[in-house]
Amino acid sequence: MQDPTYVKNAFQKIADKYVVTNHVLSCGTDILWRKKVGRIVKKWQPSVILDVATGTGDLALEVQKYCPDAELIASDFCPEMLEHASRRGVKDTRVVDAMQMPFEDDFCDLLTVAFGLRNMASYPDALKEMSRVTKPGGRLLILDFSLPKGVLAKPYEFYLNKVLPKIAGLITGERGAFEYLAGSIDQFPSGEEMCQLIESQGYKDAQVQPLSGGIASIYTAVKA
């Protein structure tokens, strides 16, 4: 659960270098994660897609490529991030607060959110709003960071809290923003806990697919 004013200000400051910073920090692995999402959603053949908290449009661009015939709307509450998404080729971008979306009930048959739910003021309320705008039988897909277990746990914790903010600070000049982002990963529910949270807010059949040893995860569910 995050302070939306702080989050918005943080993303405004790092918008210009957000894409390259993500690729550097993940050694390009985030690109592979989004391609995997693209292959998943292609199988579902959605007609109306809403990408929430789209940021600079990385996932929206990938989904747009895999589902060229679908109507895709990419929304975010930070105009500075959306400017980059538009310039990079996202066709329909809209400034929208994910906690109070202006879309009618049962609006889309696929709602995606990548690395965005973690930054919202209330995870349950955000998921409830996502459920509202998803058609019955429509799908939810969440891509976000998680914490690996086993041998990767300690090395990743060190990288996340000690190394990542320093590298990101050198690239963007905004180390504090990435210290916040690292801290938000520690607090974010993952695995079965996230699946239970999703199902408590109007979805069913929630499933989790860990990526890269559990550093990130894909969650899918169906609107009840």
Radius of gyration, CA atoms, in whole angstroms: 16 Å
Give the number of DSSP strands: 7
CATH architecture: 3-Layer(aba) Sandwich
| Shape, principal axes of CA atoms | globular
Separation of the first and last Cα atoms? 25 Å
Strand content: 15-25%
Mean pLDDT over the residues: 90
Structural class: alpha/beta
- Kindly provide the name of the CATH class: Alpha Beta
Largest sheet: 7 strands, mixed
In total, how many domains does the architecture comprise? 1
> Would you list the SSEs in sequence order as H and E?
HHHEHEHEEHEHHHEE
Number of helices, where a helix is a run of at least 4 consecutive DSSP H or I residues: 9
Residue stretches low in confidence (pLDDT < 50, at least 5 long) are none
Reading side by side through the largest sheet, how are the strands ordered? 3-2-1-4-5-7-6
Give the fraction of residues assigned to helices. Answer: 40-55%
Q: Write out the CATH superfamily name.
A: Vaccinia Virus protein VP39
The fold-level CATH name is: Rossmann fold
